[in-house]
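Feature request, filed as a ticket because there's no other form

It would be nice if the structure record came with a short human-readable summary line next to the tokens. Right now we just get the raw output. Example of a typical job, pasted below so the devs can see what we mean:
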Amino acid sequence: MDHKRQTIFFILLFLLAGFPVFSIDVAEIQVFGGLYWQGSADQGGAPSPLLSVWGAEVPINLTPLISLNPSLSFPTPQDYTLTSAGLAVPTEIETADAVTVLQLTLDAKLAFNFNLTRQLVLSPFFSPAFIFYIPTFGYGRGKAGYTDPVSGETVTFRSDLMTSMYSFFRSFRPSVGGNFVWRFGDSLGFYSCLAAYFPVFHAWDDLQIPFYDQFLITLRLGISIYLK
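Raw output as currently delivered:
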């Protein structure tokens, strides 16, 4: 299964898996923005360490204590290039050969909701999150359909980069964190979330890369819109 089909398959699976429970008990929708930090062990580039992130979350109450919180988020698109070893790494915008990649994060948070007061709720969670990479603009050899000006052959830089990003099941990023919600009105509340996403694929990729490479931390702030 190529990376495009893999992305579509997991997105559809995520949506279909959540569809039957959306009718159970959805009491609020959370919309947020925030910051997204991604570790990088590559010394050759200088990617931005902080990106903005936007998204939404829908808590589905399973019991008075436990909820399933599907979440969709995406940071600012980031440029990626290939190292001499053929590994996709984030890079600066001045890099001659690169592809701007949109990262789509799908979470399925299992949250444990503790009512500190009638208005304050603290919800630690863990999630089998997935990050999908969608190529957009390309530069130099990263352009779609780019051909070598000398040989006239199609260059595989773009497809090689995407293959690297999906290799070793790099899409799988289990996460842990916590939500904090303060309800200050009948229909509105303040939402915050701190989460860490772990690059567990380093345990089996045999690339001898430090664990903090591709380690993600995100801080999200937003509003909760109460439906009932």
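Something like this underneath would help us a lot:
DSSP finds two helices and twelve strands in the chain.
The mean pLDDT is 86.
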